[in-house]
From TrEMBL:
Domain of life: Bacteria
Residue intervals of the SHSP domain: 24-136
Pfam families: HSP20
Record lineage: Bacteria, Bacillati, Actinomycetota, Actinomycetes, Kitasatosporales
SUPFAM superfamilies, per database record: HSP20-like chaperones
Family: Belongs to the small heat shock protein (HSP20) family.
Name of protein: Hsp20/alpha crystallin family protein
Gene3D superfamilies per the UniProt record, alphabetical: 2.60.40.790
C-alpha cells in the first residue's frame, strides 16, 4: 500500500549520518519510520524526538503524503559554552506515495514521546464485500 518515492534516500541518510550533515529546507534529512497494517488501518510511525509540535507540518496532495519537521537549537544563555553536540538539528522530511485504496480524507495524527503516528484507513470501496446472487426467475420483465 505504500511505495518509496526516492531509491537514493537511504544512501543520502547514511551519508548524512557519517558526515554529520544538517538538513536544510532545500535538502532535508530523512525521518526514520515504521509502517504496518492494523486491521483496516495503515499506521505510520515517524521518529521525531526533540521536535516541538508546532515545528511539524503534514500535507497530503492527491496521494502524496509529506511530513516535514524542524529540530531547532535549544536557546542558551550567553554564558553557556557547548561541550558536546551530537543530536542532529535542522529539517527532516519524509514523502510517501499512498495507494488509491487508502482514504486520505480521514488521516489522523498523534504526537507522543517524540513519535508522530499517522493512521490512514482503508477506503470503503477497497474493502472486500460479498456480492449477492439473484435468481433468474426473480427478475421482472421490462416492456419497451
Amino acid at each position: 500500500m505504500l511505495m518509496r518515492t526516492d531509491p537514493f534516500r537511504e544512501l543520502d541518510r547514511l551519508t548524512q549520518q557519517m558526515l554529520g550533515a544538517t538538513g536544510t529546507w532545500s535538502r532535508p534529512s530523512a525521518v526514520p519510520m515504521d509502517a504496518y497494517r492494523e486491521g483496516d488501518v495503515y499506521v505510520i510511525a515517524l521518529d521525531l524526538p526533540g521536535v516541538a509540535l508546532d515545528a511539524i507540518d503534514i500535507d497530503v496532495e492527491r496521494n502524496m503524503l509529506t511530513v516535514k519537521a524542524e529540530r531547532r537549537p535549544v536557546a542558551k544563555a550567553d554564558d553557556v559554552q557547548m561541550e558536546l553536540s551530537e543530536r542532529p538539528l535542522g529539517v527532516f522530511s519524509r514523502q510517501l506515495m499512498l495507494a488509491d485504496t487508502l482514504d486520505t480524507e480521514k488521516i489522523t495524527a498523534d504526537y507522543e514521546a517524540g513519535v508522530l503516528t499517522l493512521r490512514i484507513p482503508i477506503a470503503e470501496r477497497a474493502k472486500p464485500r460479498k456480492i449477492t446472487i439473484g435468481r433468474g426467475d426473480d427478475r421482472k420483465q421490462i416492456s419497451g
